[in-house]
Design a protein that fits this description.
Distance between the termini: 35 Å
Strand order of the largest sheet: 4-3-2-1-5-6-7
Number of strands: 7
Strand content: 15-25%
Largest sheet: 7 strands, mixed
Oligomer: single chain
Number of helices: 8
Radius of gyration: 19 Å
Order of helices and strands: EHHEHEHEHEEEHHH
CATH architecture: Alpha-Beta Barrel
Helix content: 25-40%
Structural class: alpha/beta
CATH class: Alpha Beta
Length: about 200
């Protein structure tokens, strides 16, 4: 998993509450178990018209936000079903950070396992960040996970809280497999001793 230390990029505003995982990645895209290639389906029902053409009014189709790395979203982001394809789609599109006032628990935890930083802020802070994000190409935010700070385009700083273990995992690029591999020497020692003590096993 790619490490997350400091991220600087355009922030896209999505002032919609209760964005569920079906909105993030519609069920038509759930046939694959690959983590790549799902960016094309991100917010598909909002990004594309019925004939497959782009909806020019959707934020991620606007020139200033096509390469957005941060999403500033409304309350209760990621609610609905527990599909892990939702963070896969965000990451494949290039979104590495989502900022909201609250997240659904399963989606929130899935983000950390897929290299995405979900940040919870107050309603007042979200309003400020949403205003920053609406600046188009000038909507650049810097997210510093080490310092736990968001730096706005006007120099403003917002501090955020995050679980120490989840922070450690993102800073070091550790998903569940990576965490297990960190214990590889201890696992090998245990297996060798087990084989010595129980050669019949």
């Amino acid at each position: 998993m790619e490490k997350f230390t400091t991220l600087t990029g355009v922030a896209a505003p999505l002032p919609i509450v209760n964005v569920d995982t079906d909105m993030i990645i519609p069920k038509d895209y759930l046939k694959t178990i690959k983590r790549t290639g799902l960016g094309k389906g991100l917010f598909a029902e909002m990004r594309f018209n019925e004939d497959g053409s782009e909806n020019p009014d959707f934020v991620l189709n606007k020139p200033a936000y096509r390469n957005a790395k941060v999403l500033v979203a409304g309350d209760n982001f990621g609610c609905g079903s527990s599909r892990e394809h939702a963070p896969w789609a965000l990451a494949d599109f290039g979104i590495r950070c989502v900022i909201s006032t609250s997240f659904a628990d399963i989606f929130y935890n899935n983000c950390f396992k897929n290299g995405i930083l979900p940040i919870t802020v107050s309603p007042q802070e979200l309003e400020k960040l949403m205003d920053d994000a609406e600046r188009g190409a000038n909507a650049t935010l810097t997210v510093d996970l080490e310092a736990q700070e968001i730096h706005g385009p006007d120099g403003g700083i917002i501090s955020f809280e995050i679980d120490a273990f989840k922070r450690h995992c993102l800073l070091n690029g550790l998903d569940d497999i990576g965490l297990t591999l960190e214990k590889a020497p201890a696992i090998e020692t245990f297996e060798n001793k087990y084989s010595e003590d129980r050669p019949w096993a």
